[in-house]
């Protein structure tokens, strides 16, 4: 008996979202670690569960500070371009899986200017730094 093809959309049931997150989280963390080792890349993966519990994965050769500093060095234009490229690649993947995806659903910025996106990313970077400084105390 084969697997059922799951339509990629938000799960409406909150307990179902939590169960799915719990089951898939370890697989994503494992793949991220493998990618970090195989490709010798800097990696920082931060996820929040449906219940807002943070999970962090740091690559083999990375530190939180290094990855954030590397990201902060990108210009706002480079960040916007890479985000769009990633979303286009995601769209192609979904298309291969025969899923309809609206790229605007993933943008989150509602077509904002690069400057606004830059300000938002600067704020996020600052929040990440504060979060990691606090978490390193434990």
From TrEMBL:
PANTHER family: SERUM RESPONSE FACTOR HOMOLOG. It is found in: Nucleus. The keyword Transcription regulation applies. It comes from the Eukaryota. This is MADS-box domain-containing protein. Residues 1-53 form the MADS-box domain. PROSITE patterns: MADS_BOX_2. Keywords: DNA-binding, Nucleus, Transcription, Transcription regulation. Pfam families: SRF-TF (PF00319). One of its GO terms (molecular function) is protein dimerization activity. InterPro entries: MADS-box/MEF2_TF (IPR050142), TF_MADSbox (IPR002100), TF_MADSbox_sf (IPR036879). The keyword Transcription applies.
């Amino acid at each position: 008996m084969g697997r059922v093809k799951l339509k990629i959309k938000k799960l409406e049931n909150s307990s179902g979202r939590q169960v799915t997150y719990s089951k898939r989280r370890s697989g994503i963390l494992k793949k991220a670690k493998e990618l970090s080792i195989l490709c010798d890349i800097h990696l920082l993966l931060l996820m929040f569960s449906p219940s807002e519990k943070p999970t962090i994965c740091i690559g083999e050769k990375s530190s939180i500070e290094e990855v954030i500093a590397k990201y902060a060095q990108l210009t706002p234009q480079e960040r916007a371009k890479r985000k769009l490229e990633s979303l286009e690649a995601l769209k192609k993947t979904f298309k291969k899986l025969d899923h309809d995806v609206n790229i605007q659903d993933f943008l989150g910025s509602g077509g904002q200017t690069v400057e606004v996106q830059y300000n938002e990313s600067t704020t996020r970077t600052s929040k990440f730094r504060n979060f990691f400084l606090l978490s390193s105390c434990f």
